[in-house]
């Protein structure tokens, strides 16, 4: 009661201190439990879904994200390939139309007025006007020597595309018209893409200028959009097909797993039921065994009492009457001739009385309810020494102070029968009782130094009395939940051990 009161007092103290702790905590501390509850709610919600649903959601996210990057990469590659193809076609235009007009730049780095006029006239032709909206010719230093927009002539601009073209590459760009030299092209307000191509000297092959075309991108953008749509349809169809295939595979596996879980759960329930039933039966068997040994002890006591009160008393009366008869015969001087017969009858009666008393004493268990285990072991050893005239050594360690009476009776009978076997089969040589109690395990061992026997080759349940005694000891010990072992070695001796977990 005092311990319960102390626990209650501590609980009341914690409850009383809780409001102050909540008041002193900051806002973050107050919000955290809510966040945790939302997280736990979401996690429990997801756990409540089937495995196939969880897989579809996860696979849709992962596979969809992967396919998005794949589709975007393929689309960019298609766009780059289309632009490159258009750039190569534009480069052919430049080589065919512009290179004749830049041959003079190998000598004076300028284009003559006649060439400029010819280029303007060529750009205004209907066949080229359908594709090219603007055109420029650059010197290697970034100066515009020809342009559809005459306002930027002889101006110098720094562009990376010119550097790439001077390296012998065809450079194209679909979207970047934000530079200062593109004011005219931006004003056209039509989709354009730039093509930069090197213009070479016809004799030496040296790059003398860079030509730039601005072509309309309407058709190219439509083609790119068409190809991109085809790519995305293929990627989407493949993704959907993979998701559906994986979904059906996972769904089938999930169904198999659920069936196995149901079967396993039913088996576990059945196993638990059988285990519970088995444990109940074992408890009943143990209880029945204990009741049997109690009844057996009562029967033995009754037999001992009957022998003591019946035949023993009659034999005592016979001896008394024989002594009275001997006195009467001696008084009449009729006994001397029959002295030998009288003594033989009286000796036989005394022997019978002694055996009946020994049997009665062995059947009737002495009162051990008030004795400790140490005193009980000393008692059974002393009675064995008194009855057999042999010596029993005691090696008693720390022993429990209180044991239930049925277990004390079991221990008494175990030691008594083991000592009887040691005296019968080993002549009482090296009789020793060892008892100890450690880690809640009570261990009792009865040893002798006789000839021993082969335990594996000699079954306990045989017709010999000694082995029947061992079988009875095993049943008695195991009925109290203990373990019983016999160890024997030829020429060394025998050890009989009983252990009880408490």
TrEMBL record:
This is Histidine kinase. The chain crosses the membrane at residues 55-74, 231-250. The keyword Membrane applies. Residues 411-500 form the Histidine kinase/HSP90-like ATPase domain. GO terms for cellular component: membrane. Residues 301-364 form the Signal transduction histidine kinase subgroup 3 dimerisation and phosphoacceptor domain. SUPFAM superfamilies: ATPase domain of HSP90 chaperone/DNA topoisomerase II/histidine kinase (SSF55874). Pfam families: HATPase_c, HisKA_3. One of its GO terms (molecular function) is phosphorelay sensor kinase activity. Signal peptide: none annotated. The lineage of its organism: Bacteria, Pseudomonadati, Pseudomonadota, Gammaproteobacteria, Pseudomonadales. Keywords: Kinase, Membrane, Transferase, Transmembrane, Transmembrane helix, Two-component regulatory system.
């Amino acid at each position: 009661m005092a311990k319960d009161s102390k626990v209650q007092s501590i609980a009341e103290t914690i409850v009383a201190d809780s409001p102050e702790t909540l008041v002193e905590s900051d806002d973050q501390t107050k919000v955290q439990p809510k966040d945790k509850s939302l997280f736990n709610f979401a996690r429990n919600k997801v756990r409540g879904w089937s495995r196939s649903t969880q897989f579809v959601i996860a696979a849709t996210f992962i596979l969809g994200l992967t396919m998005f990057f794949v589709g975007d990469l393929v689309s960019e590659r298609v766009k780059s390939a289309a632009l490159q193809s258009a750039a190569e076609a534009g480069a052919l235009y430049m080589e065919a139309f512009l290179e004749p007009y830049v041959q003079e730049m190998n000598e004076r780095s300028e284009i003559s007025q006649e060439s400029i006029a010819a280029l303007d006239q060529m750009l205004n032709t209907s066949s080229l006007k359908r594709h090219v909206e603007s055109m420029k010719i650059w010197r290697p230093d970034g100066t515009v020597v020809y342009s559809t927009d005459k306002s930027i002539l002889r101006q110098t601009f720094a562009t990376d595309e010119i550097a790439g073209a001077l390296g012998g590459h065809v450079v194209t760009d679909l979207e970047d018209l934000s530079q200062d030299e593109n004011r005219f092209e931006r004003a056209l307000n039509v989709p354009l893409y730039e093509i930069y191509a090197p213009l070479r000297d016809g004799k030496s092959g040296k790059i003398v200028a860079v030509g730039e075309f601005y072509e309309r991108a309407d058709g190219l953008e439509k083609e790119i959009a068409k190809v991109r749509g085809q790519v995305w349809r293929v990627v989407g169809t493949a993704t959907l097909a993979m998701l559906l295939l994986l979904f059906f595979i996972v769904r089938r596996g999930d169904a198999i797993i659920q069936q196995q879980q149901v079967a396993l759960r039913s088996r576990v329930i059945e196993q638990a039921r059988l285990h519970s039933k088995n444990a109940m039966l074992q408890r009943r068997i143990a209880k029945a065994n204990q009741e049997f040994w109690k009844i057996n002890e009562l029967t033995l006591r009754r037999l001992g009492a009957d022998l003591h009160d019946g035949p023993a008393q009659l034999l005592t009366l016979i001896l008394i009457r024989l002594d009275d008869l001997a006195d009467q015969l001696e008084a009449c001087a009729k006994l001397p001739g029959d002295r030998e017969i009288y003594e033989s009858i009286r000796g036989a009666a005394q022997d019978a009385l002694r055996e009946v008393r020994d049997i009665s004493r062995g059947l009737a268990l002495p009162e051990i309810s008030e004795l400790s285990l140490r005193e009980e072991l000393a008692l059974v050893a002393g009675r064995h020494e008194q009855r057999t005239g042999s010596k029993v050594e005691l090696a008693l360690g720390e022993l429990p102070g209180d044991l239930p009476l049925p277990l004390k009776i079991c221990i008494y009978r175990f030691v008594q029968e083991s000592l009887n076997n040691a005296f019968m089969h080993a002549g009482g040589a090296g009789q020793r009782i060892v008892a100890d109690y450690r880690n809640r395990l009570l261990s009792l061992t009865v040893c002798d130094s006789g000839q021993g026997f082969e335990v594996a080759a000699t079954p306990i349940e045989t017709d010999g009395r000694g082995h029947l005694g061992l079988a009875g000891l095993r049943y008695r010990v195991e009925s109290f939940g203990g373990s019983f072992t016999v160890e024997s070695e030829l020429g060394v001796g025998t050890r009989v051990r009983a252990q009880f977990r408490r």
